[in-house]
Amino acid sequence: MALRRVAALWRAPGLALSLLVLLLVLGWALLPGLFTAADPLRADPAHRLLAPGAGHPLGTDHLGRDLYARVVHGTARSLGTAFAAVALGVLAGGALGAVAGVAGRAVDAVVMRVVDVLLAVPGLLLSLAVVSALGFGTAQVACAVGVGTVGGIARVSRAQVRRVRGGEYVEAARLAGVAGPLILLRHIVPNAAPPVLALAVTECGTAVLGVASLGFLGFGAPPPAPEWGALISTGRDYLVSAWWLTTLPGLVLVALVVALHRVGRALEREERTG
Fold first, then answer.
1. What is the per-residue pLDDT across 115-171, written as a single tens digit (0 to 9) for each?
2. DSSP codes joined into one string, 71-118
3. Shortest CA distance to 85 belongs to which of 29, 47, 141?
């Protein structure tokens, strides 16, 4: 089975490249010191706005700080915030979907109308509304972006729970006298979870983009902390003279989002066919 999966990766070079991108970015997040020895906060005005070169792979910013070091050290904050947002969405959306899937029609109708409202509002607009109410900061951004992921995850969770609850093993457990909550936790949720988790990987890409968008607007970590959205925002003032300040961090962001979506879609196909 493992060998067949490896062979499938070779037949899908786009997926293999996406996995390599994810491994690289995870390495940046977990062990940034292995990838750069430069201090992301150290300013050097004598070397401000240097173009990408041997000493500075992504160039330097308006204060002379190494841009590659700031991208690498900002990965943990950007990625961690996005993962926390998706975890919140999976917990809240999964719980809402599970309740709607096993409860009666009245509860199902109420829960799904709430989900419809969440889905009717564009994700970024909903995140902006939530973060404006909560205030600035990394935790607030994670909560705001997480709320935007609840609706889609709740719909998938409900559909999977409704599919699984009619299984023979669920009926057997019910006839054996197992309590309803135990049936939900032991039999329904574990079997309904894989498609939800596959969707969560795709939602990670959307969450990374949402976190960067809020950081770009100034809602994320305060300066001088490196954060991808803030790096792109700072470079706007130097687009003509120092294009790399915005373009290169933006390309890193695009590569990660595309890789997450590619892997998420592959997991969804695997779940449908497997």
1. 998 888 888 888 888 888 888 888 899 999 999 899 999 999 998 888 887 777 677
2. HHHHHHHHHHHHHHHHHHHHHHHHHHHHHHHHS-HHHHHHHHHHHHHH
3. 141
Q: Which residue has the tokens 């991108």?
A: 21
CB distance 78 to 132 below 8 Å: no
Burial, 55: exposed, middle or buried (Cβ in 10 Å; 0-12, 13-18, 19+)?
A: exposed
Residue 75: alpha-carbon gap to chain centroid: 12
The per-residue pLDDT for 174 is 73
Q: In angstroms, rounded to a whole number, what is the distance separating the alpha carbons of residues 212 and 77?
A: 10
pLDDT (0 to 100) of residue 232: 92
Q: What pLDDT score does 92 carry? A: 93
User: Residue 66 forms beta bridges with which residues?
Assistant: 60
Is the pLDDT confidence value at 2 over 50?
no
How far is the C-alpha of 230 from the C-alpha of 213, rounded, in Å? 9
φ, ψ at 104 (rounded to 5°): -75, 180
